[in-house]
Model the fold of this input.
Amino acid sequence: MGLTAAVLLGAVAAQAPPCLAWTYHNPILYADYSDPDAIRVGSVYYLVASSFHFSPGIPILESHDLVHWTIIGHALARLDFAPAYDLPGPVNFTDATAHPKLDYALGGYRYASGVWAPAIRAHDGRLYIYFPTPTEGIFMTSAPRATGPWTAPVKVIGRPGLEDPCPFWDDDGRAYLIHSVVGAGPLILNRMSPDGKRVLDAGKVIVDHPRHLPTLEGPKLYKRDGYYYIFAPYGGVVHGSEAVLRARSIYGPYEYRTVLSRGTTDVQGPHQGAYVQTPSGQGWFIHFNSTGPYGRIVYLEPVRWKNGWPIVGELRPGATVGQPVRSYTAPDVGRSYPAVHPQTSDDFDGRTLGPQWEWNHNPVASHWSLTARPGFLRLKALWAPDLVAARDTLTQLLQARDERVTTRMAIGGMADHQKAGLAMFGVRPSWIGVVQRHGRRYVAFADAGRETLGPPLTAASAPTGFVTLRMRVVDGRVRYSYSLDDGHTFRRLGTRAVMYFSWWKAARPALFTYNTEAHAARGGIADFDWVRVRLPPAAAASR
Done:
């Protein structure tokens, strides 16, 4: 017995010859795809995740086997919900009393806000993604296929303070929206128009058990064998567990059970996620676990059903609640597929950025280019007091606990007061790069705002006009080095910098430039030739 058609789209794939069994290992994605939700469309699986203040928003990943994933795009081209998503606006220096830092404060920001936990569903031949911004409301975007084009977001509920929406179309055609409130709990159910664009009532609280299910959030609503099921985590992001609630009526009353908790594992808080089924009827649960500076990484758990309740993960002898598996026989998807992984490295040879890249807040389009110098990413420096305030900072996710990122940067277009380089971006960012002072350029290291100058760069010391910059990430710390001979030899600079979980997101590698002098005639440019990411062999799931 499978889920209702309100959850799955497309015909079940034709029976294929069985493939050889193989074993996957958790986590399936050692990357900050926080608050994951997923569905199956035919024989393909799609996963979406929260993206907060990063733009474009809502990454979409694709898989054929639930273990190996690639990035196929984003649902939101920009975050156009409020001016603060652009970081500070232009400073007006025609007014002699204007002060750049005051203007920055007026410009505002949306760190820790933006796109929170999304939900993806299929209905009537289209895909729908619902997501909240805690300061603006709940929105919906839809598309005929996962690659888009996605419609401009529609505001479904226009008030702040809401989180974790999930739509549901019942067998009778009625549409509903379940969600929580910022701070987690209670769970609220709204009737919704059949087209999914607006709610029809003020909503009704259907679950509110602060004693037994504290901090209840992230609800995902399904229907199976006449029961309505809500998969929802409780107990907090770091040390919580996963509950499942069920009722014969969508409005309840709901009974509940804890179905997944830490148990004897090192997964301290198996949290919010998605239930999916393979074409053969196997059940699987995709969820995250919070890992400090690496963010909320993704796990895959087997699910079997007994007496109308799911058993998630593995049951220890004598246990009644499942715990995460370290490894398990991979999902039965009917055939074997090549092992693929999210994109990382980039030569900047195309006319568009690869799908692995996200800007910190919305970028300023006039100040970055892939065509001004073909084969390079050009960043033009804008004024900022520090890296956290700098616009056009380009980031991507770490994909392993142990990772090396290297970039080659041309420095010939830099200007006084400019800084440019490779950063580990977060609340207390660290970086290695080049700074220019009084016409002279230096290699520099910075950690939480404290800069250390390295050697000056001259025609003799950097004859190619390029500097190669490298970060090595190991166990939550970053070691930086640089090369002046195109990567043949590297020299360390600075101390091992600590990475931080920042604004609900992991620390992430970033390319940046900014100019600290607001009155500079020009900000300067930095041209990045390429970015190369090296992951350890253990980062890939083995067959």
